[in-house]
Design brief:
- The chain has 342 residues and is an alpha/beta fold.
- It has 2 domains: 145 residues, Rossmann fold, CATH 3.40.50; 178 residues, Aspartate/ornithine carbamoyltransferase (Rossmann fold, 3-Layer(aba) Sandwich).
- Strand 1, helix 2 and strand 2 form a beta-alpha-beta unit.
- The radius of gyration is 19 Å and the shape is globular.
- The structure holds phosphoric acid mono(formamide)ester (CP).
- The site of phosphoric acid mono(formamide)ester has 9 residues, from helix 2.
């Protein structure tokens, strides 16, 4: 991976990075996974700031462990305790906050999800504004549109599972079919994780099928990028409203709930409407019967899983589930991103 220099780069969506850059991250992540405590000088004595507008288990824990294992420290910050200006409250501007924090920290991670914004895209705007003013890398820790660290951990896990003889080989996912299927449930989840999965899967040469009931279309820009990525790789991109069609021939099944394309209206998220609507689609669950239609697919999910709604226990805890490996890979992928960008 010579010639790749990621120093100072923001990570807001993997689509912003070249395939070679993404491969450089995975290459280092794999080395870091094999030699977990061999990189303790990479961020020695340095601090990484983390803004959590929304709660987290994996993201907070994996970033804190990552900073520790690189010799640095991750500082947890809740924006509500910081007097920052928002769309509805007076306070410090992003320009001032970003400039000052750049004098302290080596990087800034931000998580802002569906219920902390008035309309889809506002979280992305906030991250881009921080990126404009900050002199340090801005890393998405999941925002309304994308979850790039999750995407890197996903593809790393899929490659691990699909590579022959445990030899990590990114070519192993080429031509393999990724099914991203909507699932019912009461969470009205944001689009960030599934959109990131579609983008990174298609960048790495996978066929991508997105299955969802009518009304659950994702961001048209992301669908277009996924289609373009597939065209560039001579692979297939399909969408379907059918519950089972997408399972045929799939190698990776990603079953997750997401909110409908009408979730935001009148300047806010209508979560209860979304929940009431989604709970009617009880057939939209990943189960053994549907997995039997696949090519012995692995089951993937970014977690936390809504068991019994998104997927049955039998599949989520079954022999073809890669969920814990993917969750572990958050740590290794983020360490690699931090070491390379900061
Ligand atoms: N996958 C993920 O981002 O998990 P958390 O919400 O627990 O951080």
């Amino acid at each position: 991976m010579s010639g790749i220099n990621l120093k100072g780069r923001d990570l807001i969506v993997t689509q912003d990075w070249s395939l070679e850059e993404l491969l450089a991250v995975l290459d280092l992540a794999v080395k870091m996974k094999k030699n977990r405590y061999g990189y303790t000088d990479a961020l020695k004595d340095r601090s990484f700031f983390m803004f959590f507008y929304n709660p987290s288990v994996r993201t907070r824990q994996s970033f804190e462990c990552a900073a520790t294992e690189l010799g640095g420290h991750a500082q947890f910050l809740e924006p509500k305790s910081m007097r920052l200006k928002t769309a509805t409250t007076a306070g410090e501007t992003v320009e001032d906050a970003a400039n000052v924090m750049s004098r302290y920290a080596c990087g800034l991670g931000i998580r802002i999800l569906e219920d902390k914004i008035a309309q889809y895209g506002d979280g992305e705007k906030l991250l881009r504004e921080y990126a404009k003013y900050a002199k340090i890398p801005i890393i998405s820790m999941a925002h309304d549109t994308f979850h790039p660290c999750q995407g890197l951990a996903d593809i790393m896990g899929w490659i691990e599972w699909l590579s022959p003889e445990n030899q990590f080989n990114p070519e192993a996912v080429k031509g393999k079919k990724l099914l991203v299927t909507w699932a019912h449930g009461a969470l009205a989840r944001s689009w960030c994780s599934v959109q990131e999965a579609m983008l990174i899967g298609s960048r790495f040469g996978m066929d991508v099928t997105v299955a969802a009931p009518e009304g659950y279309d994702l961001d048209p820009q992301v669908l277009e990028w996924t289609k373009k990525n597939c065209e560039n790789n001579n692979t297939v991109f399909e969408t379907t409203n059918d519950l089972k069609d997408g399972y045929h021939g799939a190698h990776v099944v990603y079953s997750r709930n997401w909110m409908s394309s009408n979730a935001y209206h009148d300047g806010e998220l209508h979560k209860q409407e979304e929940v009431d609507k989604a709970l009617k689609y009880t057939d939209w669950i990943c189960d053994a019967e549907k997995m039997a239609l696949t090519k012995n697919a692995i089951f993937t999910h970014p977690m936390p899983i809504d068991r019994g709604n998104e997927v049955t226990d039998e599949v989520a805890s079954g022999p073809r589930s890669c969920i814990y490996d993917v969750a572990e890979n958050r740590l290794h992928a983020q360490k690699a991103v931090m070491a390379l960008t900061m």
